[in-house]
Design goal:
Elements: E1 7-15, E2 22-31, E3 34-45, E4 49-50, E5 55-56, H1 61-87, H2 93-97
């Protein structure tokens, strides 16, 4: 009997603690309503962020580099989810994060 499980990956920004005008990019992993967050180790200018898409606005080289980095983190999270699924392990947001 299969058990339905919700899984989502969402890139989002959080204001930087220093007053530099930059925002840090994070990846939120949600499994069955339980969240875990990890840093994408990237800071961007917040006005360039598209919240609905989880991407940086524009086609400049910088925007492409930021978006590729974010996509790379999303892909790693999805790969970790697939690996846990194949192993038959218990899938939690924290297990995917680790």
């Amino acid at each position: 009997m299969a058990v339905n499980q919700t899984f989502a990956v969402l890139p989002f920004v959080r204001n930087n603690r220093t007053n530099t005008g930059l925002s840090d990019v994070y990846i939120r992993i949600t499994v069955d309503g339980v969240r875990a967050e990890l840093s994408a180790k990237t800071s961007i200018v917040k006005r360039g962020w598209i919240p609905g898409k989880g991407r940086v606005k524009g086609t400049t080289e910088d925007a492409r580099r930021y978006n590729n980095r974010i996509k790379s983190y999303e892909d790693r999270v999805k790969d970790a989810y697939d690996n846990l699924l194949r192993k038959g392990s218990v899938i939690t947001a924290q297990a995917i994060k680790e």
